[in-house]
């Protein structure tokens, strides 16, 4: 009795330990995924491999611990050593992952073999720590007995772990990685592990423990298999819905790193609340299986609610997000909207876990095996749900039908629990009739709910968070849900075509955008000595790639695009603007992210141009790091050039400085060429070379004057440039000119991805011209040694630059 009282007294402290454990786990997860994305890519396939490996390790850990560690071991000591193990491995991975990355790039490729190598790298890095993470809850569960009160505490432990995960998600996303880097974040997580382990060892030294020598096998519990299937289906619908809803909410919020942290935190918060509620109910409820069944049935309604809110309600709330430039106010609004949509379903999924434990628990069972089995079943379902939603459901069936399918799965899990209960009163014909009636009522109710799931509005994909203020501005005549993202095409009343991705216009046939896109393409092809092989990162509307494709000496052009749907859009709707580049026999389209392609190819190019998504889009900052620019330089032939698009709109000065300063660190002989609108700042092209040879203006003019370059010359005339002098007169500075302005700029590196955190705070800022004016305020000076040519040509170029005629 005294031993039981001691155990009871320590239970709240154990709950506190699980909060710390969950916090560290989420920090690690975010850090490891960021590190491994740099190695194996950030495509949907790579993310599926990472998520599957992470959760698979936790599943194995929960199953293996009760089988390899006996009940005689003190649970607090076992738990403590696991936490220490996680911390040690976390620190080791910080240094090992770059080494593993080097091995990966030597072996990686495309196709099935490439998938295997990706999976092997993920397994080497993630399985050791996730095995231990998955084993912590089963290990600690042996501190309690399989009584109703004890089982409820297991649910509280699970909820505490999730509460810690909420803290870890917000701490990592909003502070550790925003202000510091992955090393500091790892040290903090490891420190939490050590603190949790020491506290656990301290409590173990003050308590005695007598482990049971025998237990009731879980298999003797009647109907246990149905419960395992139900909790697996619950995990599947939970993670699949989270993937789908995150995709919709990222359109509505803007796909920043902060939005993803916020969405994850709200979802986890719901799971934690639900787990606590389910644990409290499990103590006194007469039929946990009935409660579990009703949870699954209510989930059908909760998912239908979320689908309606995310597509037909929230996007149309009469809110102008541009009214406040304070990012923290925007994040408050986003949190309210995420809670309004996701919290009901998340609470029900959270409650399902402790109710499943109560449904199969019997006195005398090994709590470790009980928790391990239920946790493993739930995790297996989660793995299937997350991977199928990421790689199959939305891409092949669309968001609407995917959500209808998930509602049907929840209905099936409800029937698994409720139908047998309906037959218990009478084993004969009446019992069978009860089952039929119960199933029929559930089917009718769920069918009505599923029927009401609305499709995703085309305008939401096109305008995202701007939908309330911009809906109806153009005819959104195409919308497609791809593997990575949803894209749309619209036409304005003046005939301008817009290509939409990430909930905003990314490219268009508007004169300002056409000027930028063709500047990127033609600067890349006209300047280098050799003009045979080129690479374009990001297809978009295909205009930049099209400008490259009309180079007369071109032998091959490689377009690397992460979303398979985009080349189809470029070819079908923007063909007249991009010279039908996708159908050009010299052009090869590779579906991959640009960084991963460069890491795994041995090809070299005469020019590489990069036109990625906005730097505030999560993952895009990987294409702006110092290490990536060095990688680009390695893949340039002698005399090769690189160009990069940098936007000034929807950005802030710190983010722009970071992009330019980081580029100039890799290309100290680089330059900025400005694309302005009537002298006001809009965006720029960064230009770099892998050597110090000057730009030969005479040679560029000769090329443009020759008959074979007639199409290139016409392309430039269409955007207001009638000679090489006109094009180069957009010159706006070199590293030495901008040294004062770039002082103290944050360098974007792989270890911190600082840019995505800087840019993520500027979605509602429209300071393009002030940023530009500050940049050129140091004085745009004609660069004496940067250009070469005849005196007359250089005098003309000097005059055009000094008078800012083309900028």
Summarize it.
This protein has 807 residues and is α/β, with parallel strands linked by helices. 63% of the residues lie in helices and 10% in strands.
Summarize the helices and strands and which ones pair or pack.
Layout: H1 2-40, H2 44-68, H3 75-107, H4 111-141, H5 148-179, H6 182-205, H7 224-253, H8 257-284, H9 288-313, H10 327-360, H11 367-422, H12 429-451, H13 458-463, H14 467-470, E1 474-481, E2 486-492, E3 497-501, E4 504-508, H15 511-526, E5 533-537, H16 543-549, E6 556-561, H17 565-573, H18 575-578, E7 587-591, H19 594-600, E8 605-610, H20 626-634, E9 636-647, H21 653-666, E10 671-677, E11 680-689, E12 695-696, H22 697-705, H23 710-717, H24 724-728, E13 731-733, H25 754-759, H26 768-776, E14 787-788, H27 791-802
Parallel strand pairs: 5-6, 5-8, 6-7, 8-9, 12-14
Antiparallel strand pairs: 1-2, 2-3, 3-4, 9-11, 10-11, 10-13
Helix pairs in contact: 1-2, 1-3, 1-4, 1-5, 1-6, 2-4, 2-11, 3-4, 3-6, 4-11, 5-8, 5-10, 7-8, 7-9, 7-10, 7-11, 8-10, 9-10, 9-11, 9-12, 10-11, 11-12, 15-16, 20-21
- Tell me the CATH architecture of the largest domain: 3-Layer(aba) Sandwich
Overall number of structural domains: 4
Ranges where pLDDT stays below 50 over 5 or more residues in a row are: none
In whole angstroms, how far apart are the ends?
84 Å
